[in-house]
Each structure stands twice: as C-alpha cells, then as structure tokens.
Amino acid sequence: VQLQAVGGGLVQAGGSLRPSCAVSGSSFTINWLGWYRQAPGKQREYVAGITSVGTTGYADSVKGRFTISRDKAKNTMYLQMNGLKPEDTAVYFCKAVTVFSSGTWGHGTQVTVSS
Fold first, then answer.
1. Looking at residue 71, what is its pLDDT?
2. Distance linking the first and last C-alpha atoms of the chain
3. What is the spatial distance between Cα 61 and Cα 47, in angstroms, rounded to a whole number?
4. Distances from the Cα of 87 to the Cαs of 13, 23, 47, 56, 84, in angstroms?
5. Per residue in 65-108, pLDDT tens?
6. CB atoms < 10 A from the CB of 68, how many?
C-alpha cells in the first residue's frame, strides 16, 4: 500500500480545507486509515481515523470541526477541516494499518492557517 496526501494550503482562520489521501496498491488489505499532523518543533500527533467499516474517531482538539471520510471506489480518504485555527498549522500525513503492517505512512501536505 502506498499513500499520497495532497490538498493542503494557506487559509485564514475560520476557513476550510479538504486535503485528500490517495491510496494505491493492495487497498483491500487496509483495516484502518488515519490522519496525523506535525507542527514545527512538536511531535507528530493523531488527528482522526476511520476503520474499514466506517467507524470514525477524532482527537479532542479537532472534534466537531474536522470530518474524516473514505471513498473506497476512488481509493481516497478525505479530511474536511472547518473552522481552522492557527494552531492547526502543521504538515498533515496519512497512515494506513493493513493486515501486513501496523503503520504505512505517506508524504505529508502542508496546512497553514493565518490569524
């Protein structure tokens, strides 16, 4: 499985973005997909996740503002981000957990929120 995140950008506080994560390879082996982020000087942190049957979970910091979804037909995962705050500024990464691997990472996409 290979992952590629795209769709970050620069937005003002209160705005919205919807990065996506394209999945290629043996997508049928995926048990879970998720988003993480890493701000400068900070550790990478969990943002949101979705299971193969569509169960979702969110970090407290984004709950109510972000929505994770997956389009299996398009082999793509999305992260709808509304009400963005400057503290959401980070590089966003997607991660897959498959039957063969506990963690496959894609390249990140930069999200910058100006105040």
1. 95
2. 37
3. 8
4. 10, 28, 13, 22, 8
5. 999 999 999 999 999 999 999 999 999 999 999 998 889 998 99
6. 22
Rounded distance between C-alpha atoms, residue 33 and residue 15, angstroms = 25
- Looking at residue 26, its pLDDT comes to 85
Residue type, 73: A
* Rounded Cα distance, 7 and 67, in Å: 15
* Two structure tokens written together for 26: 């043996």
3-state percent breakdown (helix, strand, coil) of the chain, nearest 5: 10, 55, 35
pLDDT at 65: 98
Q: CB of 5 within 8 A of CB of 110?
A: no
Question: How far from the centroid of its chain's Cα atoms is residue 55's Cα?
Answer: 15
How many Cβ atoms from other residues are within 10 Å of residue 73's Cβ?
6
Lookup: tokens for 19:
């990065």
Residue written as tokens 């990065």?
Answer: 19
